[in-house]
Specification:
alpha/beta; Methyltransferase, Methionine Synthase (B12-binding Domains), Chain A, domain 1; Rossmann fold; five-stranded parallel β-sheet; 58% helix; globular; binds CO-5-methoxybenzimidazolylcobamide
């Protein structure tokens, strides 16, 4: 079994006890962090979701896989932060939309954005409309990002935007959105400037958006 396959299998089986050693061994075998995340960890989570949807895996399995992914990220996160030249790029406020408890993808976006030198304010999961408004007032971010994994609660995004608009805070911030069911078309429907399909491209888009804002 290749190193990547071993990482993939560890997430699929929810093997959180051994995954850190498996990831360290992949790193020692010169597998890039990007491949470990994309081809190993994230790809396995997609299979976990598919198997959950077809009834082959149950909620406790999904929780174990999530725990394995989070445990693996504890090894990867410090290495990602060290891999970029850090200079303060701007401030991002990010949270998972109201009603949604998924945070693994959001946390990966945060890690990548911090690696690019952004200060990131993490509002957590199931974030209330007012909490985004209060955070925008307090931190005056360049970018406000929503993460959404459930098609049902993505319907709350227009309410998030309405709350920001009604507070008079929409001007001057770049809105961003991402998450497995999100598309560019979805972002366009609500006038959200920035959409990114994954954490690496989100970090690149954040840099581009802040540069464009400053130009
Ligand atoms: Co949930 N879940 N879940 N779940 N879960 C999905 C999303 C699902 C697709 C599984 C399935 O049925 N196939 C399905 C949603 C169906 C739908 O809406 N269409 C689902 C469901 C139904 C549910 C529950 C309703 C199950 C139930 O209770 N019956 C429940 C909902 C609870 C709630 O939120 N209110 C639920 C619960 C859970 C757990 C708690 C068990 C756990 C979450 C643990 C946690 O996050 N702490 C969980 C998990 C693990 C998943 C799957 C298997 C994996 C999600 C994940 O972590 N992926 C997921 C299946 C899937 O997505 N295919 C599933 C890995 C992660 C790295 O990828 O989050 O996509 P992702 O993030 C990516 C990109 O999307 C992007 O970058 C990230 C990194 O590349 N991105 C952004 C994310 N946010 C971004 C923000 C940006 C930019 C990019 O800003 C600009």
């Amino acid at each position: 079994m290749s190193s990547i396959e071993a990482v993939y299998e560890a997430v699929l089986k929810g093997n959180y006890k051994e995954i850190q050693d498996i990831v360290k061994s992949a790193i020692n075998n010169n597998i890039s962090l990007e491949d470990i995340i994309n081809k190993g960890l994230s790809a396995a989570m997609v299979e976990v979701g598919d198997k959950f949807a077809t009834g082959e895996l149950y909620m406790p399995d999904m929780l174990l896989s999530a725990k394995a992914m989070k445990t693996a990220m504890e090894v990867i996160k410090p290495l990602l932060k060290g891999s970029e030249h850090i200079s303060e790029k701007g401030t991002i406020v990010i949270g998972t939309v109201k009603g949604d408890l998924h945070d693994i993808g959001k946390n990966l976006v945060i890690t990548m954005a911090e690696g690019q030198g952004f200060k990131v304010i993490d509002l957590g999961i199931d974030v209330d409309y007012q909490k985004f408004v209060d955070a925008i007032r307090q931190y005056k971010p360049d970018i406000v990002a929503f993460s959404g994994l459930l098609t049902t609660t993505l319907a709350n995004i227009p309410n998030h935007i309405k709350a920001i608009e009604e507070a008079g805070l929409r001007r001057g911030i770049v809105l961003a959105v991402g998450g497995a069911p999100v598309t560019r078309h979805f972002a366009d429907m609500y006038g959200i400037e920035l959409y990114a399909p994954d954490a690496s491209s989100a970090a690149k888009e954040f840099v581009a958006a802040v540069s464009a804002k400053k130009a």
